[in-house]
Structure prediction request, 326 residues.
Amino acid sequence: MIPTDILVSKPTTQLRPLGQYIAPRYWPTWVFYGFLRLVAKLPFSWQIAIGTFLGKLSYHLAKDRRDAAEVNIRLCFPELSAKEQEALVRKTFVANGIGLVEIAMAWFGDKDRFNDKITVTGLSNFQTAKAKGKGVLLLGAHFSTLEMGGLLFSKVDELDATYRPNDNPFFDAIMFNGRKRNLSGLFDRKSIRQAMKSLRAGKVLWYAPDQDYGPKNSVFAPFFGNDAATIIATSRYAAFNDSPVIFFSHYRNEDNSGYTIDFSPIIENYPTGDDVKDATTINQAVETAIRRHPDQYLWLHKRFKTQKAGEHARPYNDKKARLARG
Prediction:
C-alpha cells in the first residue's frame, strides 16, 4: 500500500463555471453529467459491476470501435489464435467500460476512499528523478485507468498534464474541472510553451505520446512490430530542460480489489537527437507497459490510421478508409 507519510492533498482551484451551458444542445451532456455524479456516490463493488455491464453492452453497440480494437489486436498480437484475440477484444471493452465509471470516481468521488486500495512500485525511481531538480517528464499511455491514474498520482506528488480539449465546450469544462481536482496544472497539448514552463519550474509533467496525431510532427517507428506514426514532441520536452524521463503505469488489479501504480527507472540515453530512434525508445516503453495488462489499454483508438502509403492503406474498416480504397 502507499506509505502514509508521503500522502499529499491539494486544493482545487481555477474551475470553470457550468451554469452558462443551458442551451438545449447541451441537455444530453447534462444527463451524462448527472449520471457521473450519481455513479460516483455508489459503493466500489457496484461501480465495477456497472462498468462491466457498460463494457459488455458497448461491445455489441460500438461497431466502429470494435472494428478498431479487432484490427489493433490482430496486428499487435499475431501470436494469439483468432479465439484468443477475440477474447482479448471482449476483455478490452469490459476494461474500458469500467474506465468510464472510473471517470466518475476520479472526478466526483471521495479521493480518500482509495488510500488503502493503492499499491506503489518503483517509487524510489520517481524520487531519484525528482531530486535532480530539472523537472520530471512522466510518460504515460492511454490505459482505461487514465483518470484514476491522475487521482492515484495525486496521492504521491503534484502533477501537471497536457490534454486534448473536447469539441463540446460544456463537456470540456466538466472534464477540465474533474481533472483539476487531481492536477496542479492542466493545459492544451498544443501549448508547448506552458509544458516547457512547467518543466523549467521543476514540476512533474504527465505526457502521453502513444496516440496517432497524424503525419505532422511525427515519424514512423515500430510499435508491436508495426510502423506507427509517433509524435516527436516527447524528445523536445525532455531536451528542453534536460529533464529525466520515466514511465508511469497505472493498472486495475485483476481481482478488482484496487490499483497498482508503477514508476520505471529513468530512461537512459534519451533523447539522442535521432527522431526515429527516440520514438522507437518511447514506443518500446509503452509496449512493455501494455504487455503487463493488455486488456486495459485503449485499443479502441485507431493507432495505425496514418500510413506511409496513404489513406488507402488504412487497415480499419471505416468510412474514410473505404472511400480512399475506392
Observations:
- Residues 2-12 have pLDDT under 50 and may be disordered.
- The chain has one domain: 22-314.
